[in-house]
Amino acid sequence: MRDSGKFVVCDRGNERSRMQIFSKNGHFLKKISIRYIDIVAGLAVTQNGDIVAVDSVSPTVFRLNENGELKKWFDCSEYMREPSDIAIYGNEYYVCDFKGHCVAVFDDEGNFVRRIGGENITNFPNGIDVSDAGDVLVGDSHGNRFHVAVFSREGTMISEFECPYVKVSRCCGLKLTSEGYVVTLAKNNHHVLVLNTLYVS
Predict the structure, then answer these.
(1) Which of 74, 83, 94, 150 is at a distance of 20 to 30 A from 59, taking alpha carbons?
(2) Contact partners, residue 160, CB within 8 Å, separation at least 6
């Protein structure tokens, strides 16, 4: 949460996901009840501080405020098979479809807008972020390597990159830091990968 410096964290306990807010120093502030979400597959924060989560069990996007009040939700199961991450740019929601090998884009009202990527380009995507310039970065770890495909917001492929230095498996999430580094988590290797700034021409 950029303005406040707080962090929204989701993890999974016994069966369902839980959501908590921490200070920028890592101190627990509060728990947000999300009884209506089974498994949080992706998490993002809007420019005005609303929390957006996507459920991978019943492909649905939920938008709530910092107090946990549900502001809106929409079902995206008609357009995707298994959500794996989410990013927001302006009034558009970019949702990775792990089993559909693409990104489904929805407007603020939940209307389907377009698809980005496809098989052999974004195989099993599991991380997404959008740069301040509007470049859509989609990450995957298919084939035991971390691969990033870069698209325009309209879906035109601009470039792609691969990390050849380490074999990874089951990466999850992709975020750009304010310095431009690309960060992902490799679950099976128990690593956080921080990649150099990507220059898109």
Answers:
(1) 150
(2) 121, 147, 148, 149, 150
* Interacting residues of 41 by C-beta distance below 8 A, sequence separation 6+: 54, 55, 56, 82, 83, 84, 85, 86
Provide the whole-model pTM.
0.90
Q: Which residues contact 48 (CB under 8 A, 6 or more apart)?
A: none
Three-state secondary-structure class, residue 143:
coil
Q: Where are the beta strands (DSSP E) in 23-156?
A: 28-32, 40-45, 51-55, 60-64, 70-75, 83-89, 92-97, 102-107, 112-116, 127-130, 136-140, 146-151
Tokens 């990775």 belong to which residue? Answer: 96
Tokens of residue 179, six digits: 């310095």
Q: How far apart are CA 170 and CA 186, in angstroms?
A: 6
Neighbour-count burial for 104-126, b at 16+ CB within 10 Å, e otherwise: bbbeeeeeeeebbbeeebbbbbb
Task: Share the mean pLDDT of the chain.
Answer: 88
pLDDT tens digits for range 13-71: 666 788 999 988 889 999 998 888 888 999 999 988 999 999 999 999 999 998 889 99
Secondary structure (DSSP) of 73-89: EEE-TTT-S-EEEEEEE
